[in-house]
Structure formats: C-alpha cells, structure tokens
Amino acid sequence: MVEPSKAIQHLTSNKTPYSDIDSLEMSSFPFYMVNRILSMDISYLPIINNICLGTDLYMDNESKYRVLQNLLPKKVGYIKYIKSKTKNDSVKGKVVNWIKKYYKCSDLVAIDYYNIIVNSKDIEYELYNIMAYSNVDHKEINKVIKEFKK
Fold this sequence. Notes:
By secondary structure, the protein is mostly helical.
C-alpha cells in the first residue's frame, strides 16, 4: 500500500503517471487520506472541496488520481498534517476501556459510567473491581487509584 505522503509526491512534485505506480498498491489505498492531507494546504482546499463533492462517490481510484494530477500545480512543498491531540493512553482512556470490558458496552455508555463512578463516594471500590475484572496488575491498580485521589 502506498503511504499518503508518497501518493501526494506522485500527484504534485513528481507528476508520476498512474500507470507507473503499482496498481495493486493504489487500488487498496484509501483515497480519502490524500484528500485529507491535501486539504491541509489552504491553496489546495477549493480544488479538493470541489472534487470531493462532485466526483468522490462515482469515481475509482485511478480516475481520482488522474483528475488530481491534472488539476494540482507541480510544486514541491511540505503540507503539515494536523493530528488529534487526545490520546487514549491517559488514565481516563484506560479506565474507560476497562469499563467497556467490564460492562460490555459502547464508548459513550462507558464514558457515562466513568462520570458516574468518578462522582461516587465508593470510587476506589468501583475502580478496583473493574480493574481486577480486566486482569490489571496490582501496581497499576494502585497507580490509577492514586491518580484519582489527587
């Protein structure tokens, strides 16, 4: 599979014809990522917006590639991709995952349970039961409970 950055290089700076790229790699490539990264550059935004609205559902990857290759200017540049700053490695993310496992529920329901548990009087008891059910080791349980005591 072609990386998004390589696909963008093929489209803009190299102007590589679609036939020169391994067709198996491009056919399995999620083209929405190319659109997403290209839309981070303000000069490409109107082009990408019009292409997505008008043709995205009706075209195969080869056609989308050729349209973008013909419309985008040949230039070398850096497009900064903005990623989400939220990580699921936080204590809250870990506890929500354990709650999902314990109650066998969705993310939204687990977040509701999390809010209820955090505001309850027996927070240590509840967290201990949930984490013990999820086979979390004793050191991790103490560490998480200590975080909630702060």
